[in-house]
Structure formats: C-alpha cells, structure tokens
Amino acid sequence: MIAIIPARGGSKGVPGKNIKEICGKPLIAWTIEAALKADCIDRVIVTTDDEAIAKVAKEYGAEVPFMRPAELSSDTASAIDVYIHATEFIMNETGDKLDKFMVLLPTVPLRTEKHIDEAYQQFLADGATTLISFAEAEVPASWYHKLNEKGRVENAGFGQGITMTNRQNNETYIIPNGAIYILDYELLKEKRTYYCDNTVAYIMSREDSIDIDYPIDFEFAKCLMEKKHNS
Q: How does pLDDT run across 113-127, given as a tens digit for each residue?
C-alpha cells in the first residue's frame, strides 16, 4: 500500500503549519514517521508545491518524486485532483496499476502506525471499496443553528428541528477526522468521490483525531502529545 501525504505551502489559518514545530518535530514529520513505521505501507510519498516542505519531508524519510503543479496548489484546488495527479504520476513511474492507495493528512499528528495498520486490516477484513476514519461528533446534529436574513436564530435543518433533547437521547453521529483514507482510483476518477455503498468507517477517539487548522489546535495537540509521552 502506498501512502500519499498532501502538504501544500499556502496555509492561511496557520502560515507554514505543515513544517511548524510541535513537540520537537515539524508537524508533517509525525505523519511521515507513523506511515514509515506501519507494517502495511510500502512507500510514503509527499505531494507538495513548497520546497521547504519537500526538504523536511525528505529529511524524515518520505519520497518527494515530483513538485505539485501550481494549479493544484491553490485554496480552490480539488483534493480529488491532487490525489489523481499523484496516483497517475506513480503509475506512469512504475508502469503498474494502482487500484487502492492511502491518504494521510499531515495535520493529524496523534494518528499513529497502530491506527494505520488497524484501519488497513479492517479494510481487508470487511472487503471494502474505500475506508475513511471518523470520530464521534461533539454535539448532536439537531443542536446546530444558524442566523437567518433577519438576524434571528433558526434551526440549521439537521436532525430533530427545533426540538431540544438531552444529548443521551440523540442519535450518535460521526464525522471524518482526516486521519486515514483508503481510496479507490477508479471510483475517484469516474465518480469523483470517496464514498460508495461499500465504504467502511474506522472509528478513532476524539483525542487522536485532533486536526490542526487554527493556532489553538496546536496547543490542544501539544498538550495531548505531551500527556501521551509522559504516560
């Protein structure tokens, strides 16, 4: 299994976040090292448009066989196109068909090689077409509200409308956490989706699912990583 780590250089929420240091290493290094340690991963490939990210990725053992084109590195570029570009480069390079591949976002530093191997084993055992990692949603969908054009509160239209119930009485929802995707090239190419009738979920704890988008996320992740290390 090939692991693809997408890491563009133009982050706005946290400038330079993919190589920003956390607990003694650049953020992306935690994902690279987890992938290299996983038994199921044969190659770890970083797709980036940024020379500094490419340099760090190579220092920590990942391959950077190409630089991502500018048209696939903007805020509006489709992740699906990034993955298709990377897989087709690999297929052209090796001459082999790449039916399945794994994507590991570099912004989930508490995902470990144990999670990667467990997800892969579940994917095989379930005979799945694709697998996506999830965490339990923090609040029920029926609690989401929005402001209408008059500035008044109204329900966002999920779940139980305006009915308010205790958390324990609500259905459990799960949300993708960005940690692990096992994707199907043909499905991605033809349908442009990760999901199908044979998609399975690998469930992770909220603690291991921290996804760094904002500066405060670095602080949360750092505290959790230090706690794990000390324990």
A: 999 999 999 999 999
